[in-house]
Write a structure and sequence with these properties.
about 85% helix, Polysaccharide biosynthesis protein C-terminal domain-containing protein, about 450 residues, globular
Length: about 450
């Protein structure tokens, strides 16, 4: 009897140890590998933002006419473009240099806020002056009541980007998730209040109000807790040399990517009108979540490469291996559910935008390889190569969009993104061992 019990007990033992070992390995991976831990948090932030953002836009499309939705999204695109330009790529600079800045981190952050706020405000004012030429459909922004809010909102968005870089750079990526949650929830609640009060500008007011709340909370955490703790932990750090040269060169590449992301909605608005821009904008919001997965893992790569430059190739390959399979699954899933997902926003969205959403989703796969190549080049300080990749992407996307949109409509925009990403990713794939050698090969 005892032997039978022992035998039967031994037969059931493997399942429990296997589960325990699996849990321990997963816990160890997330606890001791900052690359994946911080990358996962940033990706979770993007997914959460996309999910809550989808709820927001479902409500917006239910309560407002497509023309209003399209025009409001064009304004938000202009703010994000100008804020992205005005932040001078200092978010990425902070990701790259805050880990080693030590007791100089607070000064580096405050200087980044001052420079980005000044440039973003000047850029917003210049845009308002040029609206009749570059975006006639946004002429209402020039009114004396709206213009100041547009400028302040652009400055706030520039700071929003910079603080994300600072939080990531001091290894507080969990607060990037927190601030985005605050932004999404407040934005949705404010939209509901604006719709209840029948405010025609409710989409823009809710977005601006949520931005103000998120900035206040995140900067309290950043300046009162995260930065002081980082300075104490890295008291021997120093201000990085040649910071301005690095920032200026890297900024030129970031401008190219920003232009590609944010000029396209203005092209759609001016070419196809506000309603079709609403259809495209919702598709881009959904597909951009896939782009963010690659960007967020790349941000974690930059931070960890700053701590240990010898591991750049290892980190880059780990990002590809870790992100590629789940991203492929997400793309395939989106290809299948695209019409049903868009129908949540209305039957016209599913009818008009299913094709462009599928094309944009496919473009996220080659974008992963391109994004890793750019971040590896930046970690190695091979900025000319990183800038060239981003400039080429921008040129291809804008030229192809202008050529294809008259013939294929919204599907032409999706095709432009897919063709541009593939044109860059294919040669990068063929030359992978040269720019991202395996760690074993590097150590020889």
């Amino acid at each position: 009897m005892a032997s039978q019990t022992a035998a039967s007990g031994s037969a059931t033992l493997p399942a429990a140890p296997y589960t325990v070992v699996l849990r321990r390995r997963l816990r160890s991976l997330l606890s001791y590998e900052p690359l994946l831990r911080n990358g996962h948090v940033l990706v979770a932030s993007s997914v959460m933002t996309a999910g809550l953002g989808a709820v927001y836009w479902v409500l917006a499309t239910s309560w407002y006419h497509p023309e209003t939705v399209g025009r409001s999204y064009a304004v938000i695109s202009a703010v994000t473009l100008l804020g992205g330009i005005g932040q001078l790529n200092l978010a990425d600079v902070l990701m790259r240099f805050a880990p080693s800045a030590g007791r100089h981190t607070r000064r580096l952050l405050l200087r980044s806020y001052a420079a980005s706020g000044l440039c973003a405000g000047a850029g917003a004012a210049a845009f308002l002056a040029l609206v009749p030429l570059v975006a006639p459909g946004l002429g209402f922004l020039r009114s004396s009541l709206v213009a100041p809010f547009f400028i302040v909102g652009t400055i706030g968005y520039a700071w929003f980007i910079v603080q994300d870089g600072a939080l990531t750079g001091v290894r507080r990526a969990n607060w990037v998730l927190g601030e985005n949650a605050i932004f999404a929830v407040v934005k949705t609640l404010a939209l509901a209040l604006a719709a209840a009060w029948a405010l025609g500008s409710g989409i823009l007011l809710s977005w601006a109000g949520a931005l103000a709340v998120s900035l206040t909370v995140a900067n309290y955490v950043l300046l009162r807790r995260a930065v002081p703790a980082h300075q104490r932990a890295h008291a021997d750090g120093r201000m990085p040399p040649r910071l301005l040269g690095y920032a200026a060169t890297d900024y030129s590449g970031a401008l190219c990517r920003l232009a590609a992301y944010n000029i396209v909605p203005l092209i759609v608005l001016n070419t196809l009108g506000g309603a079709r821009n609403a259809y495209f904008s919702l598709s881009w919001v959904i597909a951009y979540t896939l782009y963010q997965a690659a960007y967020n893992m790349g941000s974690s790569l930059l931070v960890e490469a700053a701590h240990d430059p010898a591991r750049i190739s290892e980190l880059g390959r780990r990002v590809l291996r870790h992100t590629g399979p789940p991203l492929t699954v997400a793309v395939l899933l989106l290809l299948v559910v695209a019409p049903w997902l868009l129908s949540v926003f209305g039957a016209e969205y599913a009818h008009e935008a299913t094709g462009v959403l599928r094309l944009l989703a496919l473009s996220a796969l080659p974008n992963l390889l391109l994004n890793v190549a750019i971040d590896v080049a930046r970690a190695h300080r091979r900025l000319a190569w990183a800038v060239a990749l981003q400039a080429t992407l921008c040129a291809l996307v804008l030229v192809l969009t202008l050529r294809l949109i008259p013939r294929f409509g919204l599907n032409g925009v999706g095709a432009a993104w897919l063709l541009a990403e593939c044109a860059l990713a294919l040669p990068l794939l063929l030359t992978l061992p040269r720019w991202l050698p395996s760690p074993a090969r590097t150590s020889r």
